[in-house]
Amino acid sequence: MKKKEILTLLLAGGRGTRLKKLTEKMAKPAVPFGGKYRIIDFALSNCRNSGMNTVGILTQYQPHTLQNYISNGENWELNRRDSGITFLPPFQCDDMDRWYEGTAHAIAQNRQYIQYHNPEFVLVISGDQIYKMDYNKLLDIHKRNAADVTISVTYVPWEEASRYGVMNVDSKTKRILGFEEKPQIPHSNLASMGIYIFNWRTLKTIFEQFQDERDYLNDFGKDIIPFMLKSNYRLFAYEFNGYWKDVGTVESYWEANMDLLSRKKNPLLHQKDWPIFTADCSLPPTYFDANSSFTESLIGEGCEIYGKIQKSVISYNVTIGKGSVIKNSVILPNTIIKENVEIENSVINGNTVIDSNLKFNESFSNILRINDRRILNRQ
Q: What residues are designated binding site?
């Protein structure tokens, strides 16, 4: 096969336990977002807009919803001949069941797929982040620096820095001088976004060097990056200045949805020439009753609104009954909220029925009590 310049590998296999009920029956990248999207739409749209049209999606936990949603990638124009989307689940071989045990281990187990495409570079991205990025800018910086790996980075609030891999870089050259994965006391708030471009020849050599040490190659942040620093490889940072949100917790998921209601923060309103594509639900327009109202909100298709909505994100095919009030909340698809319900600062999981006359003012860091006897999950 003709050598490709760059191959994209999208990591979509994490269980996402910190999203609690949202990922009980689906992979984190498949979770609905923003009224009409799925989280993975942002990564796939970045690939399409960047012209990165050969994408391997590494799945593991609850992959079926994700695979059914993406199908052949037609909605993102990633179904072209000799390119397109390939799903790469863990597989069995003669000597073991090769479950993915970390980001680097997942890539290492798919060396045969990568070598088939024979790329010069490998772009590694995550399927659970909200952002718009032209990956060609990252590639240009990587080439200019003759780097072995380039890591996309951004500054995060100091109080959140312990959630990420953080690093020190040379202020002029942006060469990475030090890196620490999820430190208890961060020395820096310049955080890895989990987006990498590797020279494939370099990464392949490292994999081969440690292929018999199973516990060594589990993770890029914990294992590969520190090893490359100690071994004097060329590691550089690409500073990203746009909107970026890792939606790994219920709190950050709620915050990212609320950001869509701010013109200043909403990534969908910026770079309109860089659209976010999604699968069409083919639902009718939303209906608003004469007594309904909404302010500062996003409302998906196919809804029936009889109550009041204030600063909330309402997904498609949601019914909000007469007298009900929704404030600062995220309501996921196919939910029925009956009459005279009050919901504030909450995330309501999809396929849920909430009985009349209930009041909820939950902390957004906790998913609503779906096991309440008055709240029913619809099958």
A: 100, 165, 181-182, 192
219 and 323 both lie in a single domain? no
Residues forming beta bridges with residue 238, ordered by sequence position:
152
Q: CA–CA separation, 195 vs 353, rounded Å?
A: 38
What is the CATH classification number for the domain harbouring 20? 3.90.550.10
Q: Give the domain CATH number at 335.
A: 2.160.10.10
pLDDT in tens, the chain (379 residues): 556 899 999 998 766 677 888 888 888 899 999 999 999 999 999 999 999 999 999 987 777 788 888 876 677 777 665 568 898 987 644 444 467 778 998 999 899 999 999 999 999 999 999 999 999 999 999 999 999 999 999 999 999 999 999 999 999 999 999 999 999 999 999 999 999 999 999 999 999 988 766 666 788 999 999 999 999 999 999 999 999 999 988 889 999 999 999 999 999 988 889 999 998 888 999 999 999 999 999 999 999 999 999 999 999 999 999 999 999 999 999 999 999 999 999 999 999 999 999 888 765 444 454 444 445 444 3
Q: Let me know if residue 236 belongs to a domain.
A: yes
> Using CA atoms, how far apart are residues 372 and 353, in angstroms rounded to an integer?
11
Is 280 inside any structural domain? Answer: no
Rounded to the nearest angstrom, the gap between the alpha carbon of residue 341 and the centroid of all alpha carbons in its chain is: 31
**Do 62 and 149 belong together in one domain?**
yes
Number of helical (H) and strand (E) elements in the chain, helices listed first? 8, 30
Q: Known binding site for alpha-D-glucose 1-phosphate: residues?
A: 100, 165, 181-182, 192
Range of the domain at 77: 6-259
